[in-house]
Specification:
The complex is a heterodimer of chains A (about 475) and B (about 100). With about 475 residues, chain A is α/β, with parallel strands linked by helices. Chain A contains 16 helices and eleven strands. Chain A has a domain of about 250 residues: Amidase signature (AS) enzymes, CATH 3.90.1300.10. In chain A, strands 1-3-2-4-6-5-10-11-9-7-8 form an eleven-stranded mixed β-sheet, sandwiched between helices. Chain B has a two-stranded antiparallel sheet with strand order 1-2. Chain B is flat. The chains are: A alpha/beta (about 475), B mainly alpha (about 100).
Chain lengths: ~475, ~100
């Protein structure tokens, strides 16, 4: 097995035992980046080879001297271009931020640096994280490493394609309605959206502030847990960041949950679910039963309405958050300014792509005078009902399971002209964001044509530790996570 | 629910987005389809349900009122589309004068 197919945990162990140097890891992934980028188009900004080499050399030197090293020492981590990196261009894959160089690091970037991780480029995404295919990037089309004619999912598409394609062992994404879990599922990876408040949003460029969370994408559960335990924790600069201790997820990972009860909502197995995806999910349930788990029916009666509520709440918050891009202090300003309003309107029309404009207009409409009660307040009431469904269901089970996505990866361009059809690919993931609960996607099989399928695990707030243990139970008896695409 | 072209135009103005006639027409069609989908929420009776704006039970987080450093001027102006001295250059708000460079 070549270096680029190994997990971060394996690379860390090989370094500790002296069999591998950080510089060798850096070279392997720099080579993979160069060889595969023309095909995969994962990155907005290439990893800076000289900086990566310098950091790797410094880590090897420290190790040689016996100096203490961070928990991600020498591990390249690719960063979704929605996270601010001090002195490194951060575009959100938008023309609006084409030349934007943040003067500060996001909290999660500070955490990675403190643990000696090697920042490894900025990954392509749907513009401002709005999309499910990465086709909304203003710059390039990322490809699914399992079939490069297909989308890698989105919005964290580049973060998924680079890990699945062996260009980086780990990456960070962000998830507002499924943007980590959906690309993880479509690219055969493990991806987690943590509980709202578990990870600081400081330096995460805002899309919908009550839904957004930063989270990890990785090859397996251990790596996913390792990256989450690195980035999670309290940060006073995000008032919604929760001040509870972060459990050592990687320490307890291999302890199975005794008397595990899995809730299966019938609402996740309705119309629109592909039969191959469904049979892979049901096969996963049988594996859990063999491990002694009890499968029970639970009901999430309002989940069929979650997507409609989401497409009010998220655009409403986006229209407010994106009002800051007015071409005055930073970001794109039109070359043909007029009066103040004309300068705003032209700068924004030129800087934002079509999907972002669509959502800003939708959000502005549902918040506008005369419509706010009918749309926005209605959606917030439905949000309460969606959350209550989960609270009730978790009285009876440890975890809720179902498909992450209704289908495997679709072809590039297939849904490009039908925004609503694309929104429907988020149907199983958005309720988790509305309720603020943690959600994890793990690989659970392939379609006959060789496309990965993801199993979604949803837990009560702040039960990430339990979710990782439950996911690991399945992973320990299956080998889906060890498969790599042929590139 | 379908939106009229005039409604889309008005909302685009509120959102400070200058759209072409073709874009407005496409937006009208796509937004109407999305609103039709959203209208299924009206099937639900939500009388007496408290709106949920935020999933966490935390409110009014305060920090100590202590002085701390702020962004240096050079860094704050580092991304300015038009810098004039130590200021952001912006179009005149109250007159028709063009932007001075």
């Amino acid at each position: 097995m070549s270096l680029i197919e190994k997990t971060a945990s394996e690379l860390l162990a090989l370094q500790k035992s002296g069999q591998l140097q950080a510089t060798e890891i850096a070279e392997a992934f720099l080579n993979a980046y160069a060889a595969r980028e023309p095909q995969l188009q994962s990155f907005m900004l290439a990893p800076d080879a000289s900086v990566v080499r310098q950091q790797a050399e410094a880590i090897d030197a420290k190790r040689k001297k016996g100096q203490p090293l961070g928990r991600l020492a020498g591990i390249p981590v690719a960063i979704k271009d929605v996270l601010c990196t001090r002195g490194i261009r951060t575009t959100c894959s938008s023309k609006m931020l084409e030349h934007f160089v943040p003067p500060y690091d996001a909290h999660v970037i500070e955490r990675l640096k403190a643990e000696d991780a090697i920042l490894f480029g900025k990954t392509n995404m749907d513009e401002f994280a709005m999309g499910s295919s990465t086709e909304n990037s203003a710059y390039k089309m990322s490809r699914n490493p399992w079939d490069t004619e297909r989308i890698p999912g989105g919005s964290s598409g580049g973060s998924a394609s680079c890990v699945a394609g062996g260009q980086a062992p780990l990456s960070l994404g962000s998830d507002t309605g499924g943007s980590i879990r959906q690309p993880a599922a479509l690219c055969g990876l493990v991806g987690m959206k943590p509980t709202y408040g578990r990870v600081s949003r400081y330096g995460l460029i805002a899309f919908a502030s009550s839904l957004d969370q930063v989270g990890p994408l990785a090859h397996d559960v251990r790596d996913c847990a390792l990256l989450l335990e690195t980035i999670a924790g309290h940060d006073p600069r995000d008032s919604t960041s929760v001040n509870d201790p972060v459990p050592p997820y990687t320490q307890t990972l291999d302890q199975p949950i005794k008397n595990l009860t899995i809730g299966v909502p019938k609402e996740f197995f309705g119309q629109g679910l592909d039969s191959e995806v469904e049979s892979a999910i049901r096969q996963a349930f049988r594996e859990y039963e063999k491990l002694g788990a009890k499968i029970i029916d639970v009901s999430l009666p309002h989940s069929p309405y979650a997507l409609a509520a989401y497409y009010i709440v998220a655009p409403a918050e986006a229209s407010s958050n994106l009002a800051r891009y007015d071409g005055m202090h930073y970001g794109h300003r039109t070359a043909t300014p007029g009066d103040l309003i004309a300068t705003y309107s032209k700068s924004r029309a030129e800087g934002f792509g079509k999907e972002v404009q669509r959502r800003i207009i939708l959000g502005t409409y549902v918040l506008s005078s005369g419509y706010k009660d009918a749309y926005y307040l209605k959606a917030l009431k439905v949000r309460r009902l969606v959350k209550k469904d989960f609270d009730d269901a978790f009285q009876h089970c440890d975890v809720i399971m179902g498909p992450t996505t209704p289908t495997a990866a679709f072809k590039i361009g297939e849904k490009a002209n039908d925004p609503l059809a694309l929104y429907l690919s988020d149907v199983y993931t958005v309720s988790c964001n509305l309720a603020g609960i943690p959600g994890l996607s793990i690989p659970c099989g392939f379609t006959r044509s060789g496309l990965p399928i993801g199993l979604q695990l949803l837990g009560a707030p702040f039960t990430e530790e339990k979710l990782f243990r439950i996911a690991r139970m399945y992973e320990a008896v299956t080998d889906w996570h060890t498969r790599r695409p042929k590139l | 629910m379908s939106l009229s072209l005039d409604e889309v135009r008005k909302v685009a103005q509120l959102a400070r987005l200058e759209l072409s006639a073709a874009d407005l027409a496409l937006m009208q069609q796509q937004l109407s389809a999305i609103l039709d989908y959203i209208d299924q929420l009206n099937e639900l009776n939500t009388d007496g349900i408290e709106p949920l704006a935020h999933p966490l039970p935390i409110h009014n987080v305060f920090r100590p009122d202590v002085e701390s450093s702020s962004l240096p001027v050079e860094e704050a102006l580092g991304n300015a589309p038009n810098r004039i001295g130590d200021y952001f250059g912006v179009p005149a708000v109250f007159t028709d004068e063009p932007i001075s460079h």
